[in-house]
Design goal:
Length: about 270
């Protein structure tokens, strides 16, 4: 997968993209269809969308990046708020040729996507939210566990929850390979930022069409949070994803790409 670094506010930020390679420092080639900006979850990185981006690249120009402190981008710690994460994304893509931009966010990335839509600095035509999303999602247990790990008081262990019951071992291997790239301190900071955003933000001000995707095997508490988010958004809708729980981007990238394609086509009709 083509990767290239960009300096954003003094942070080396790794970008993952498709299409033709471009010169160092030049934006990725985003000329194939509409632009898709994919934002990863806390503790993950942009390469977690690899298989999904392969499929989306047929009709779109997908691009993702590693948030500061995550994956192979610079800094040891995460940015401290969802707002600063949104500003980082804006500063990264401000000079790119974005066409009919749809922002896809997973977990914490969904909060960043909605913050971007609310700020309205970028011309975003649609938002897609996947994973553990919504302002009522309970992050307390995960934050407590990450705090113990980051302070050296507990052993770091791969989280195998949130997957469909019949998930193939190869999916876990892919997820694990991306999970180990990010220090738990960065994951902790990012999750705390998401928790604060959830508590403080009124999503009723987000006027961008937003699709909340809910995997068929999603646990009840996360399903309810996703449904509440969709209902709270003025232009929110929800749709299911077969064969997945909360990790749809890696569990069922083929199915997820079809749902995103359909949403994109609906936006083209209603623009």
């Amino acid at each position: 997968m083509p990767d290239k670094y960009f300096e954003v506010d003094g942070v080396a930020t790794l970008v993952h993209h498709r299409g033709e390679s471009t010169l160092p420092g030049a934006p990725p080639d985003l000329s194939n269809g509409g632009s898709l900006l994919l934002l990863h979850d806390a503790g993950s990185n942009g390469n977690s969308f690899r298989d999904l981006m392969d499929r989306l690249a047929v009709d779109h120009s997908p691009v993702s990046f590693d948030q500061p402190g995550h994956g192979r981008s610079g800094e040891l710690d995460s940015l401290t708020s969802v707002e600063t994460m949104a500003i980082h994304a804006e500063n990264l893509v401000e000079n790119w040729d974005l066409n009919n931009l749809i922002v896809v966010g997973e977990g914490m990335g969904a909060a960043v996507a909605l913050e971007l839509a609310s700020r309205a600095i970028l011309n975003i035509v649609g938002v897609v939210c996947i994973g553990a999303v919504g302002q009522s999602v309970d992050l307390n247990q995960e934050i407590s566990e990450l705090a113990l790990i980051a302070s050296g008081k507990a052993r770091r262990q791969f989280d195998s929850t949130g997957y469909a019951p019949d998930t193939d071992e190869s999916v876990f291997r892919k997820a694990f390979a991306e999970w180990v790239k990010t220090d738990p301190r960065a994951a902790l900071g990012a999750r705390r930022a998401q928790e604060k955003w959830n508590a403080d933000t009124d999503v009723s001000h987000v006027k961008t069409p937003t699709l909340v995707i809910i995997g068929e095997h999603t646990e009840d508490q996360y399903r309810e949070s996703s449904e509440r988010l969709a209902d709270a958004l003025p232009l929110g809708t929800k749709r299911g994803l077969d064969g997945a729980a909360r990790r749809g981007a890696i569990e069922n990238p083929a199915g997820l790409s079809l749902v995103i394609d359909a949403f994109s086509n609906e936006l083209e009709v209603t623009k």
